[in-house]
Amino acid sequence: MFVPHTHDAADSVDDALEASEQGVRAVKISLFMLLGTTILQFLVVLISGSVALLADTIHNFSDALTAVPLWIAFLLARRPATRRYTYGFGRAEDLAGLFIVGVVALSALVAGWQAVDRLIHPQPIHNLGWVAVAGLIGFAGNEAVAIYRIRIGRKIGSAALVADGVHARMDGFTSLAVVLGVIGVWLGFPLADPIVGLLIAAAIIILLWGTMRSIGRRLMDGIDPDLLDRARSALAGTPGVEAVPALQLRWIGHRLQGNASIQVADMPVSAAEQIAAVARHRLGHALPNLDGIAIQTTTGTTYGGGELARSTSAHGHE
């Protein structure tokens, strides 16, 4: 009541720009954190010859590279819509997600190949203590990046950033697997190192499935049913709304857009527009990531078995 606020189109654009800025900041910080972790691990690989640590280092480096397409995607999302791209460039995030899947798959192949080669041609491992320390560093670095990416991704509604954060968290556990390999070598089982390398490669492939599902769902305009329920409750709870016959939502990058149809009593067009405006306002509060919603109002009065043909439409959210 005392702090002025609106949900008009200009504010929606500001929200989108702020979300993109937060996304860029999260990508930059996590990029440098993972690069620092990778450099430390690679130095230990050079002095130890551990193939398990090499696999983990390659994977962490690939994770750092995935920040680059996300960075580009967030920058593109800040561009205004054009006559050719009327919905803007938010889909660039989902394309970046596909690139992430490809890079991660390649890292799994490289790590697996290195592990198989070391099984066929065993080599001694040196400085086991440093290898264990490097594994712990990999875990700490990945976990820190995961916490940050997931928090920002959920805040701005970016599936690609959340997926990358979850992936980083699982990578932290693969780094701990390096420590298990060290323990195996210490106990007199030198093949534990390449075997752990193979397990890490297999774990990467398994983790890909969840990432592919998340990105694929976005590309197919999939939506979390909970979001749909929240939107429907907000519309149905608006005074004057008798029913919500249709409701569609989809993600454009980390912003939501959609269409809705609300049924009202037989009334003048101006009164129906006021109800639609209130419904948009409530919807904007229920879904903070909402960029725009087209609301059509229809009456429950029937003529010859069909709904009244008159309707009004409203765009944006106020």
Summarize the structure.
With 318 residues, the protein is an alpha+beta fold. It has helices spanning 9-48, 51-77, 92-120, 128-156, 159-186, 192-219, 225-236, 269-286; strands spanning 241-252, 255-264, 290-299, 302-303, 306-307, 312-314.
Question: What's the layout of helices and strands?
Answer:
Layout: H1 9-48, H2 51-77, H3 92-120, H4 128-156, H5 159-186, H6 192-219, H7 225-236, E1 241-252, E2 255-264, H8 269-286, E3 290-299, E4 302-303, E5 306-307, E6 312-314
Parallel strand pairs: 2-3
Antiparallel strand pairs: 1-2, 3-6, 4-5
Helix pairs in contact: 1-2, 1-4, 2-3, 2-4, 2-5, 2-6, 3-5, 3-6, 4-5, 5-6, 7-8
* Unreliable stretches: 1-17, 302-318
Main sheet summary:
4 strands, mixed
Question: How large a portion of the residues is in β-strands, by DSSP E?
Answer: 5-15%
Shape summary: elongated
Mind telling me the C-alpha Rg?
25 Å
> End-to-end span in angstroms?
16 Å
Order of strands in the sheet with the most strands? 1-2-3-6
Number of strands: 6
User: Which whole number gives the mean pLDDT?
Assistant: 76
Secondary-structure content class: alpha+beta
User: How many separate helices?
Assistant: 8
Give the helix proportion (percent range).
55-70%
N to C succession of SSEs? HHHHHHHEEHEEEE
